[in-house]
Design brief:
14 helices, globular, 11 strands, TIM Barrel, 431 residues, alpha/beta, two-stranded antiparallel sheet, eight-stranded parallel beta barrel
């Protein structure tokens, strides 16, 4: 069977462009559930694999609007599951500011509610100011990843505490749960001590799909060991191919094969009927950039307060921040490659928070995505519309049909679970 792309929708209600909400007719709130339902219907019409929600644990008024004001992801996706049927539903929950028992229970619940469509994006949380909201000091990068590795093992262990047929519910005998098919976890580790079992039966998918986005060395190793889907930050085809190969080549070290992990680079497509129309849309969006939000996004990405720098000056020598390793590395490489000024870097980061911006007519967009897919830079893409609804409708109505005509993307859903969309086996129980 011919290899096909996978497509995820990165959902920010005000659009991935920092100023997307200012585009004429655009959705201007990430607290409008009716708009979210309409977006979900469009994504399912386009046969997308999943809808994915990032998250933020602080209200930074200088950040992207949808990270400052938003619905809580699991609550929103549970509600969205009732008006969708096929599409996967992925939410971010931090391994630094959560506990394994609650996470295991929440995502198993979402998997039951949605009929096997749940996905957990396990992140370590980069922004150090978040610690103040939880009464603690933000751990450094290395410690966050040590915690994350144990956290993931505990969550998966809790999902395996129940056999599929542990719930008997035999009215004649009165036996509701077969005690021989339920186990405690009895985990006692460096960071967590969890007895178990979790108080919900085994999820329809066995394990909800695990998503990750870490681009640092510890992040790549954790993804190679534990993730089903990896979101990546890209700006350049050759660099993307190198990063893709690096991750895939790590998998055998953990007893896994290349087909067990799907790599989806983030891309913000700006689609026009012609290349010129697309450029005009992007220019209009860029003209809306201003004020503190774009500068705040730049400062957060690099862990540096850029308000003291001259935007028309050169990019200063910057260390790799203890926050977003992959964003810092990828953006600085592009800036040096193209001899950007600090203002150029500011504009690039403001456009899609540091992600790849792809601008053009439908054929141009489809040709580029096909090239990346076929040349070993991606297994598909995490699509980040600049604004809703038009910015996403254009991709679904104009680009997806071209990919379908070329045999690169499905025309209909063939399975009932998110694992089936990605071609992933249902995991057996590890005791």
């Amino acid at each position: 069977m011919k290899r096909q792309m996978h497509l995820g929708l990165f959902l920010l209600g005000t659009g991935s462009h920092t100023a997307g909400w200012r585009y004429p007719g655009a959705v201007d709130s990430f607290q409008d559930f009716a708009a979210v339902q309409k977006i979900g219907a469009t994504a399912e019409r386009g046969c997308f694999d999943l809808i994915f929600m990032g998250d933020n644990l602080n209200a930074d008024l200088s950040a992207h609007p949808s990270y400052t004001l938003r619905l809580e992801p699991l609550t929103m996706l549970a509600a969205l599951s009732t008006s969708t049927k096929h599409i996967g539903l992925g939410a971010t929950v931090s391994t630094t500011y959560s506990d394994p028992f609650s996470v295991a229970r929440m995502f198993a619940s979402l998997d039951h509610i949605s009929g096997g469509r749940a996905a957990w994006n396990a992140v370590t949380t980069s922004n150090p100011v978040v610690g103040a909201n939880f009464g603690t000091v933000h751990p450094d990068h290395a410690r966050r990843y040590e915690m994350a590795g144990e956290f993931l093992d505990v969550v998966k262990g809790l999902w395996d505490c129940w056999d599929d047929d542990a719930v008997v519910a035999d009215k004649a005998s009165g036996l509701y749960i077969d005690p021989a098919k339920v186990r405690s976890l009895d985990h006692d580790g460096t960071f967590f001590k969890v007895k178990g079992p979790v108080n919900i039966g085994r999820a329809p998918q066995g394990h909800p799909v695990v998503l990750q986005a870490g681009g640092s060395e510890p992040g790549m190793n954790l993804a190679a060991r534990t993730a089903d889907v990896v979101f990546s930050v890209v700006q350049d085809l050759d660099e993307a191919k190198t990063a893709y190969a690096s991750l895939k080549n790590r998998l055998p070290l953990f007893g896994r094969t290349a087909g067990q992990v799907t790599v989806l680079p983030g891309v913000m497509p700006v689609v026009g009927r012609t290349d010129r129309e697309a450029r005009d849309k992007l220019n209009a969006l860029q003209a809306f950039i201003g004020g503190g939000n774009a500068l705040g996004v730049l400062s957060e990405r690099f862990g540096v307060d850029f308000s003291t720098y001259d935007l028309d000056g050169p990019i200063p020598e910057l260390p790799v921040a203890d926050t977003y390793h992959s964003f810092t590395r990828v953006l600085l490489a592009k800036a040096r490659r193209e001899q950007m000024s600090l203002r150029d870097l500011y504009s690039l980061t403001a456009a899609a928070r540091g992600h790849w911006v792809l601008c053009g007519a439908p054929e141009t967009i489809a040709d580029t995505l096909q090239q990346w897919f076929e040349e070993g830079a991606a297994d598909g893409f995490n699509v980040m519309p600049p604004y809703f609804h038009e910015g996403f409708d254009d991709f679904v109505d104009l680009v997806v049909p071209i990919l379908q005509e070329r045999g690169l993307f499905r025309r209909a859903y063939e399975g009932d679970t998110l694992r089936s969309h990605f071609g992933l086996e249902r995991p057996g129980i590890v005791r």
